[in-house]
Amino acid sequence: MTIMNDKTREFVAMHRDEDVRELALKAKRVEGLDLPLALDQIAGWQIASKKLPQWASCEGIIYPPHISMEQCSSQFTAQYKSEIAQTLLAPAATVRARVSDSGESDNQTTKSEPQLSDSAESVMQTAKSAFQLSDSPESDTLVARSSMVDLTGGFGVDFSYLARGFSQATYVERQRHLCDLAEHNMAALGLDQARIVCGDGVEYLRQMGPVDFIYLDPARRDEHGSRTYAIEDCTPNVLELRDLLLAKSQYTLVKLSPMLDWRKVVADFDGTVREVHIVATGNECKELLLVLGQQVHEEPSAPRVFCVNDNQRIDYDSAAYTQGLRIGGKPLPEAKNYLYEPNASIMKAGCFDLVEERFGVTQVGPSSHLFVSATPVADFPGRGFAIEAIGGMNKKDIKRLLNGTKQANIAVRNFPLTAPQLRKKLKLADGGPVYLFGTTMQGCDHVLLRTSKI
Fold it and tell me: What are phi and psi of 430, to 5 degrees?
């Protein structure tokens, strides 16, 4: 790894807020200035300032070329993985609190708000406190005498947050330049417990001793550089390593493509998935995370599913909600005053019957995945709208619904037209305060709902 000299470092500090492309064209070639390295550092810092603000605020970080910065985890998703690790390894009494936000106890299931209980929130806040960058590395160690291994180190963002909760943390990566970067950056971040190993993660797994926690983020590109999604097409193939991972760790966290069907993935791992985490930010699914662990009971148990979209978080027992919406089980309310659209993580999970039960709403129709209610719903995990009018697709209804409106935000769910097609048909410009939804209600009626955002 090339370390920046003083001239290059000064250039980066002076120009890091400027446009990189313009700098590449106009910057003067000065003796001692490594311009390509400087431009990489400026571009990397600019991405980090939005994606990894804690890294960006730390002096001395060296950033990789642009593509690695685009592909690395964000601060939010990296911190969330650390929350998972620390909650899994917390004392059993506090781990049990994780189920409380679904309203479940040992003997009954009741409705509750989609928030963590005080005890579960305390666990999460304790874990979060370990992720703050600090001048005192000793204060960052949350779990004493515990060990973890990241077998697919990469740029090291996930490792840097996971490592803060462990007294021993090992980073394994095949590419020497990434290992050099990690060694430099972990020192800059004050992670004295970090150990950098340059080598093949699978070979390291085979020869290493048992640890408390293993993390893997398999490469999702083939030998030609094309993107892949199926587990068996990624490197390494975690399905082939399953038994070895279970033998070498108490828990293993695997990051997979959010494109995968989580139910099929759980079936592929044959009863060893303890938890499924569907992680979204900005209402865009970013990661599918699996927690693998030894089977506790003789019969395989269904995993707990966690749906996360920024600060919206709910979890549930997947065994109780396996069929999605119970079609026809709940008639639409007479007064349809509010419309709710679940966030991306819930859409991915497909737990629409859970949403109905927990929030007292009703899905407008099978496969529509929009919900209505007569009264407003607090803390719904998604977007909420006040319904102003409902109508069909005939000219009279459309004229009444639009009422002179020239622009609207248009979305469709389970509707015969795409959003652009509906916009063209209605001759509407984009934007404005009106939100128009095209969908199919119970009874197979195609309808338009004119709404305003709550």
Answer: -85, 150
